[in-house]
Specification:
The complex is a heterodimer. Chain A is about 65% helix and about 5% strand. Chain A is mainly α. A two-stranded antiparallel ribbon of chain A has the order 1-2. Chain B folds into 2 domains: about 45 residues, no CATH class; about 140 residues, Alpha-Beta Complex (Sulfite Oxidase, Chain A, domain 2). Chain B has 4 helices and 10 strands; from the N terminus they run αββαββαββαββββ. The termini of chain B are far apart. Classes of the chains: A mainly alpha, B alpha+beta. Chains A and B meet through helix 1, helix 2, helix 5, helix 7 and helix 8 of A and helix 1 of B.
Chain lengths: ~220, ~230
């Protein structure tokens, strides 16, 4: 077994459960949203009150797995990584050949970072505007009309983000394996996330343990 | 239990947080200004939408589109042959109307904005039909009648109005909307339209009008909406 077949630990159990919970709730929200919004579906399915309740409950539950994840240090650390954009990230976003391996891509590439923040912001906006629509006594009518307008567009945007996310996942079995099992092949990681691999401690390989970064990657940084 | 190694803190600006805050700002601005923005957007797009052969534009949340509510599963279709409207309860002369009977009664028409309580609005909807007061006069409510109850042939939906509100000019048993017969999806062949009140007061697939001594809360009112559906800005 060559060095390139070794696997690296990428996501902890907590992170994978956050992902599963979020995926389930997001799917529920988007499916019920489609039924509530798209006229032919609204009438074919009917039972508006039940569909609405499922949508609202799933919507309020949607941030819960992410908030529960905060108890995990690994999850908090990944949030920190997702939050920060390096100079390489900006170049990665602008580049047309961002996949050619010449960028110092860390644990997440700039597209994943952008997706994460857009999803997080959209979820907050959707929960807020959904609240104004559901408890109709909270604000005046014109604000409720505005809330509906915002909710519609953010839902459309979030739906497209999720579709894009699924699209990229379908295209990359190694990335899927990473989220399913928590582990990825070293070869894949060196191609897609070279800076992450470079800064992992040797003991992280084969999951023998965890340690903070060793600084091996510093040479790559400007 | 295995844990991945922690990478060093990434250098660079907290762009993720800024994106989240930016979206929040956009959301707040949209809530406050979205009503007038979407109105202008739809006025501007209306001519394009009319000529859009794909019909895709009207599925986007570009502005005023009706959302189709049904509180049951699929609703049976009724036409001129099978449709009946009963008027009964506390009245001297209960009666049943066919679609042609309703069409032969004095017709009234007007244009008004349709407001859903959740916020969506369709401006300038044309309505035509028989004033509810016309049907009430023919039925001759007894002195103990204080309210009107509406039933739907979906078998579940009910609504109500106090008798004085039910007699108002723009409370109609609608036979036409948007320049044509009321379609099945819009609650046809006959639905209520109560001007000045939120959409949930306007029963779709109307099958029964019943005079009662007290106002009986309807379907949505058992689920949190107010019995008084008056639109207040």
């Amino acid at each position: 077994m060559g060095d390139s077949d070794l696997t690296l630990s990428r996501f902890t159990r907590v992170e994978r459960w956050v992902h599963r919970g979020t995926a389930l709730l997001m799917g529920t929200c988007l499916l019920t949203a489609f039924v509530l919004y798209y006229g032919p579906m609204s009438l074919a399915v009917g039972h508006r009150h039940v569909v609405e309740l499922v949508h609202v409950v799933a919507g309020y539950a949607l941030p819960v797995p992410m908030l529960l994840g905060l108890v995990s240090a690994a999850y908090r650390a990944d949030l920190g990584v997702l939050n920060r954009f390096s100079r390489d990230d900006w170049q990665w976003l602008r580049s047309r050949n961002r996949r050619n391996g010449s960028f110092a891509v860390g644990k997440f590439n700039a597209g994943q970072k952008l997706n994460a923040s857009l999803v997080a912001g959209s979820v907050v906006v959707l929960v807020g505007t959904g609240t104004l629509m559901f408890w109709t006594g909270l604000v005046r009518l014109s604000w409720r009309t505005g809330a509906t307008f915002v909710h519609d567009w953010f839902a459309l945007g979030l739906g497209l983000l999720v579709l894009g996310h699924i699209w990229f996942a379908i295209a990359d079995p190694h990335a899927r394996e990473g989220m399913r099992t928590g582990r990825v092949s070293r070869r894949w990681a060196e191609k897609e996330h070279p800076d992450w691999v470079a800064r992992l401690s040797p003991s992280a390989e084969d999951g023998r343990g965890a340690a903070s970064g060793t600084g091996r990657g510093r040479a790559r940084r400007r | 239990m295995t844990r991945p190694a922690q990478p060093e803190p990434e250098p660079g600006a907290p762009v993720g947080r800024r994106v989240v805050l930016g979206l929040l700002g956009l959301g707040v601005a949209g809530v406050i200004g979205g009503a007038s923005f979407s109105r202008r957007l739809s006025e501007w797009l209306a001519p394009v939408e009319l000529r859009d052969p794909t019909g895709l534009l009207s599925t986007l949340p570009l502005g005023p589109v009706f959302r189709f509510y049904s509180v049951t599963g699929s609703v049976v279709t009724r036409d001129a042959k099978t449709y009946r409207l009963t008027v009964g309860g506390l009245v001297a002369r209960p009666s049943t109307y066919r679609l042609d009977d309703l069409r032969s009664l004095p017709r009234t028409s007007f244009t008004s904005d349709f407001h859903c309580v959740t916020g969506w609005v369709v401006p300038g909807v044309e309505w035509a039909g028989v004033r509810l007061s016309e049907l009430l006069d023919r039925a001759q409510p007894s002195s103990s009648a204080k309210a009107v109850r509406f039933r739907s042939f979906d078998g579940v939906y009910t609504e109500s109005l106090p008798l004085d509100e039910a007699r108002e000019e723009h409370v109609v048993v609608a036979l036409e909307m948007l320049g044509g017969p009321v379609s099945h999806d819009h609650g046809g062949p006959v639905r209520m339209y109560v001007d000045g009140q939120y959409g949930y007061k306007s029963t779709k697939w109307l099958s029964g009008i019943e005079l009662t001594s007290d106002e009986v809360p309807g379907y949505w009112e058992h689920r949190g909406y107010e019995v008084d559906g008056t639109i207040r800005g």
